[in-house]
Amino acid sequence: DIQMTQSPSSLSASVGDRVTIACRASQNIVIHLNWYQQKPGKAPKLLIHAASTLQSGAPSRFSGSGSGTDFTLTISSLQPEDYATYYCQQSYNTLLTFGGGTRVEIK
Amino acid sequence: QVHLLQSGAEVKEPGASVTVSCNVSGNALTDASRHWVRQAPGKGLEYMGGFDPEDGETVYIQKFQGRLTFTEDTTTNTAYMELRSLISDDTATYFCAVDLGLGNNAFDMWGQGTTVTVSS
Prior knowledge:
The complex is a heterodimer.
Chain A: E1 4-7, E2 10-13, E3 19-25, E4 33-38, E5 45-49, E6 53-54, E7 62-67, E8 70-75, E9 85-90, E10 97-98, E11 102-106
Parallel strand pairs in A: 2-11
Antiparallel strand pairs in A: 1-3, 3-8, 4-5, 4-9, 5-6, 7-8, 9-10, 9-11
Chain B: E1 3-6, E2 10-12, E3 18-25, E4 33-39, E5 45-52, E6 57-60, E7 68-73, E8 78-83, E9 92-99, E10 109-110, E11 114-118
Parallel strand pairs in B: 2-11
Antiparallel strand pairs in B: 1-3, 3-8, 4-5, 4-9, 5-6, 7-8, 9-10, 9-11
């Protein structure tokens, strides 16, 4: 199985801050990497697919980059509604796997 | 507008089975890559398996082999997930999720989640 490691596991940031979340794959997954946002008690929402394509309806302050084994989700200017947990997911093979999540908290 | 509606919360005793349904409206179930994900209380997302029409293969994650079955009723556009021989560690919220055409098994639509509690 492909292991996905996110860092940090949690972070505290203020409104307006630039936030970066990293995701590393245990092997080359090219650009088969998706990012989700999940708020408490809710289903996840797709933010980014194929490493850098912004999902329709997702705010433009979210961006994704990377290829191979190292990927990044960036929030350019954190908004109050962005406090949530973020997950990466690889879809390189049929045994899909998620990262452990990064919780973004209010500073 | 595509919508996934899951069945309601369940409480089961250890050793029992549970079936969670996921009704798709606004899109044919068979046109989507459809999958199941669970989340234990306070934990991360765990992929259980699913079906991608592009390769025509049903995938079950190894840890669930022998206990997990996915079925579908195309007449009602409903997918089902049955988990048998339940243990306390199966206590979780179970989600159905679909890729409606993005490819890359990026789940652009999710059900609301079904809470399954395993307790004696």
